[in-house]
Amino acid sequence: MDRKTLITVSILIILPIVSILYKLKVADLSLLPMEVDDTVNLQVVILPKENVAVSEVNFPVPKQFIQSKVLKSNMKIEDLDFRMQKRQYGHLGIWEGEDWNSPIGYYAKIKILPYTHSHPEHDIPQTTGKQSAKEPYYLSLKNFSPEEIQLAKKLFEQIHPYDKDNVAAAKQIFYFISEEVLNTTKEISLSDTIRLHNGSAYTQAILFSLLCRIRGIQARTVAGFDLSKQNTKDNKTKLSFWNEIRIHGKWYFVSTYKNIFASAVNGYLPLWKSVEERRSLGEEPATFRYTTYITKSNVNRYNFKEYSDEIATSNRFLRYYSLYSLPTPLQNLFRLVILIPIGALVLSVARNMIGIPTFGIFTPILLAMFFYETNLLFGICFFLLIIGLGFFERYALDKYYLLAVPRLSILLTITVITLILFSVLNEEISFFNQMSVTLFPIVITTIFVERFSIMIIEEGVLHTFVTLAGTLLIALISYMIFFFGSLQILFFTHPELLFIVIAIQILLGQYKGYRVSELFRFKEIFKS
Fold it and tell me: Which strand (E) or helix (H) includes residue 465?
């Protein structure tokens, strides 16, 4: 390596490092945007039922719990008055007003955290000592009817968890309900659940709380949303119910309906942690109906808005030159475009160091963008189909001795017709999920097939298909790079890293040694 090249490469490597250190140490910026995990958008829409006059509606609204952090919320009240009842076990939204005929509700962005407590240790039952002030509330039976208490006590005698500590007794109650009480989605009362051994998630949770309280174990019924029960088509969900039991001062998750006892679980969004009566939540009354939509907001994995605000509030000149200052559509474009040089670097290594043949220089990268913007399975199938059609089209049109431009125009027309047929058939059978039609298939495949046909004639079928395989291999590697989110965000946040890519390309450009493929090709010469 000569002195000029060494100086150039050194400068290209040092400049990005100095720039990043300046951002971290002087401008006091974060290295990357903050990661966003398990954050959901919750929307509840409440509508009055037809021919029903109503002046007040109750429904639980999100509260800061250990398992849920409300990042942002907004209430929709229209012409109604809104107030909130705040309790330690939940917040209840109350809408009041006359002539209510339009949808109300709320929107919230919530970070969901897991229930971390699991596998409680067994304890020795305490016969003396004062209970804390909070204990009597979660041991109270006043919200249950005399009939429900009487039936529950008879059931408790059958379970007979007297001679066990609290943990073992709670497990015995749990196993009885989860194994002996059949699940149902129908509306059923707690009394019928005890009699028939058939219950919904709500009545099973209420029964577990009642039996635990009879045994002297603090228990409460929780209302919220189970993300695993979400409808994947329209993102709708309904209120779910589960339990929490208090042992050694910690609350443990229990769900008899899903057969989970004191395990660390994720995907549960609690709204109300003391359901004594379902009507108190306003859930499914005779006056209104509600619809809940939950969508995950961690598609990008990173909080770009917060990082943009961080750059905007910086007093440094970087806020004027950051890609985060661009409009959102341009940001989305550059997050893909900025990885194209990485694909070109992979191509350079493959061609100059390994010796993998490809069609042209940038064709594999363009194919990778085609796969990225449509669908990998669709892209490969469509691409191979067009190659086959183009080959036979070239063979058929050779008999007419057409000029190059009309022949290429016919190939372009065949490509468009094939794309139309693919799209229509996919609408009927939905074979290719999330397929999106862009201009890349038309442009890339038309040009590629022409070169493919010419190479078959000039260099033979074997060499052409080897080159085709090499092109697809590099295209697939570049495609995987485009989906490497962390690398994409790193280069988007610090685009000066592209100077390092240039430095590596300079080093590759000066390589004059043997390629890997040539070592195998000339192995007999090397042996002699």
Answer: helix 461-482
Helix ranges restricted to H, 338-439: 340-348, 363-373, 376-397, 404-429
CB 220 within 8 A of CB 89: yes
Element (H, E) at 10: helix 3-21
Rounded Cα distance, 267 and 376, in Å: 30
Whole-angstrom distance, CA of residue 413 vs CA of residue 144 = 75
Task: Find the helix or strand (DSSP H, E) in which 71 lies.
Answer: strand 68-76
Identity of the residue numbered 262:
A
- The residue with tokens 């229209």 is 78
For residues 61 and 224, what is the distance between their CA atoms, to the nearest angstrom?
10
For residue 51, how many C-alpha atoms fall within 13 Å in the half-sphere facing its CB?
0
Helix (H/G/I), strand (E/B), else coil: 67: coil
Q: Give the ranges where 259-375 is alpha helix by DSSP (H).
A: 304-312, 328-337, 340-348, 363-373
Written as tens digits, the pLDDT of the chain (528 aa) is: 788 999 999 999 999 999 899 888 888 888 888 766 678 889 999 888 776 667 788 889 999 998 888 888 888 887 788 889 888 889 999 888 877 778 888 999 888 888 988 888 775 544 433 444 445 678 888 889 999 999 999 999 888 877 778 898 999 999 999 999 998 888 888 999 999 999 888 999 999 999 999 999 999 999 999 988 777 667 788 889 999 999 888 899 999 988 999 888 888 999 999 888 777 777 666 678 888 998 877 545 666 777 787 787 776 666 677 888 888 788 888 888 888 899 899 999 998 888 888 887 778 888 888 787 777 777 788 788 877 877 777 778 778 888 878 887 887 788 778 778 877 776 666 565 555 555 566 677 777 777 787 788 788 888 888 888 998 999 899 888 887 777 888 898 899 999 999 999 999 988 888 888 888 877 777 776
Cβ atoms of 498 and 491 closer than 8 Å:
yes
What does DSSP assign to residue 45?
A: E
The model's pTM is 0.54
What number of other Cβ atoms are within 10 A of residue 356's Cβ?
A: 21
